[in-house]
Amino acid sequence: MGLALAEAARGPRGANPLVGAVLADRDGTVLAVGHHRGAGTAHAEPDALAAARRAGTDPRGATLCVTLEPCDHTGRTGPCTEAILAAGVTRVIIGAPDPTGDGAGGAARLCAAGVEVITGVLPEQARELNHRWTRARAEDRPFVTAKTASTADGFVAAADGTSRWITGPEARAHAHRLRARVDAVLVGTGTALADDPRLTARDETGASLAHQPLRAVMGRRTLPDTAALTRDGGALRLDTRDPVGALRRLRERGVEHVLLEGGPTLLTAFLAADLVDELWWYRAPLLLGEGAPAIGPLGVGGLGEARRWRTDRTGPGISDAARGVEILGPDVLTRCEPQPRPAP
């Protein structure tokens, strides 16, 4: 299960939970490993089974160890229970049960089909891995990733309002790849008026990437007809300053993963409401001393009231030594998530 948890950490956070799987024989010899790589891709269990077949290994009679209860429903992919039964796996070891209504039930289905099922192996670690995703699902809202780009001393614009470009081309290209991974990108009307962003996902040459997120603007101010988010079909307008209401509207549109692109007012509102599930902070080696701060007041009166976050040591293509921190040209990206709340 420890190996399965490490494999789960190789996946990206977002619309789906992080899940890892290990296929082993009865003696515990590892035959194959797998993990979920994001929405629309194979789940961890079919990924491990496919890896075994590519290696010429027959999974019949094997044990499958998975960090989260296998799903028993059809979404973008088929039920994992069907893949497990079709492969002839005879024992399944589960870290934590699936807490969602549509995903639960896989263990009972496997038991009914005669598979030996063992549950609750390293359950606390398995639950903690996806504690924010679980909360987002319980609140029936999208998973929220917030992104900001600032100077080393935390400013997103100089005193005169100039902000392009604080970070370099490598960081900006990296942020565009993040856009291509989410269902929607959300900005406030202040950012829309000040920066006139397109919010499209583009490569280093400026060409559009294959997946384009839904573009959304939140706030009460009106955008001019000449704005980039008004032209070309326009962005979804969310005439509200309430983060909960905005997420509800996006969820109604089928959005499961939303990226907050700014600005400081929007980010502060979502942070104050504890609705940011992960934060991507790009920092450039620049010092301004004054200007527009990346985050506004959060109502913290003392150090004991500070919001506690931790570096997120997960993510695809990142070495164990560098997880959560990446060097992008002259800039540094830190990815972090809120610390889990103490159990009641």
From TrEMBL:
Q: Where does substrate bind?
A: S163, R179, R202, E261
User: Can you tell me which residues bind NADP(+)?
Assistant: A149, W165, T191, D195, L199, G263, P264, T265, L266, L267, T268, A269
**What is this enzyme's EC?**
3.5.4.26, 1.1.1.193
Listed A to Z, the keywords are: Hydrolase, Metal-binding, Multifunctional enzyme, NADP, Oxidoreductase, Riboflavin biosynthesis, Zinc
Pfam families, A to Z = dCMP_cyt_deam_1, RibD_C
Annotated catalytic residues: E45
Q: Which InterPro entries match?
A: APOBEC/CMP_deaminase_Zn-bd, CMP_dCMP_dom, Cytidine_deaminase-like, DHFR-like_dom_sf, Eubact_RibD, RibDG_C, Riboflavin_Biosynth_HTPR
User: Which reactions does this protein catalyse?
Assistant: 2,5-diamino-6-hydroxy-4-(5-phosphoribosylamino)-pyrimidine + H2O + H(+) = 5-amino-6-(5-phospho-D-ribosylamino)uracil + NH4(+); 5-amino-6-(5-phospho-D-ribitylamino)uracil + NADP(+) = 5-amino-6-(5-phospho-D-ribosylamino)uracil + NADPH + H(+)
Domain (CMP/dCMP-type deaminase) ranges: 1-107
Query: Which amino acid positions bind Zn(2+), per UniProt?
Result: H43, C71, C80
Question: Which pathway or pathways does this protein act in?
Answer: Cofactor biosynthesis; riboflavin biosynthesis; 5-amino-6-(D-ribitylamino)uracil from GTP: step 3/4; Cofactor biosynthesis; riboflavin biosynthesis; 5-amino-6-(D-ribitylamino)uracil from GTP: step 2/4
> What does the cofactor section's free text say about binding?
Binds 1 zinc ion.
Annotated GO biological process: riboflavin biosynthetic process
Gene3D superfamilies linked:
Cytidine Deaminase, domain 2 (3.40.140.10), Dihydrofolate Reductase, subunit A (3.40.430.10)
Give cofactor(s), names only: Zn(2+)
GO molecular function list? 5-amino-6-(5-phosphoribosylamino)uracil reductase activity; diaminohydroxyphosphoribosylaminopyrimidine deaminase activity; zinc ion binding
PANTHER family, alphabetically? Answer: 2,5-DIAMINO-6-RIBOSYLAMINO-4(3H)-PYRIMIDINONE 5'-PHOSPHATE REDUCTASE (PTHR38011:SF7), DIHYDROFOLATE REDUCTASE FAMILY PROTEIN (AFU_ORTHOLOGUE AFUA_8G06820) (PTHR38011)
> Into which family does the record put it?
In the C-terminal section; belongs to the HTP reductase family.
The record's function comment reads: Converts 2,5-diamino-6-(ribosylamino)-4(3h)-pyrimidinone 5'-phosphate into 5-amino-6-(ribosylamino)-2,4(1h,3h)-pyrimidinedione 5'-phosphate.
User: What name is this protein filed under?
Assistant: Riboflavin biosynthesis protein RibD
